[in-house]
Amino acid sequence: MWPYAFRLTMWVELKDDTGLDTTVRVENLSDKPFDFTLALHSYYSCSKVDDLVIEGPFLGKSRMDKTENPPAISAATSDVVKIGAFTEEIYSNVLPGICRLTDPAKGSLDIINGSGWKDVVIWNPYGETGMGYEGFVCCESAGLTPVVCEPKGTWDATMRLVASPK
To answer: Which Pfam family, just one, is annotated for this protein (predicted)?
Structure first.
């Protein structure tokens, strides 16, 4: 199915005062280069998705709205995203950087993306009560442009979550 020898490792470390750190490493153990894409499908709890504010380095960057058929590509007109309808958006080449989720009832969460990650995916199945859409958002750190991993090479991506509860 996958004709290359590789290793994927993920480290998760809970820090006392600085949050939760994750590192994802892809190692090419083969003698040929390969390319891949990767995303952390991170779901974050919120009190009410309608009140949630998502901030990131989006303004002017490529935004793909995958709810359109075919998907619509435009430049983002703001650094702020609010969920009020079914949402599946990809913001390209916005990372490394910080995305902040602010919930008036819970506080804020900083998603600090370091090396490796380039893109952000925001998803919520708004209106799907059976999925509990009101209480979560997916804000994914992603590498959706294929990454080339050279023979015996590695690729690392880091993310830190820092909560500021209310």
So the answer is: Aldose_epim
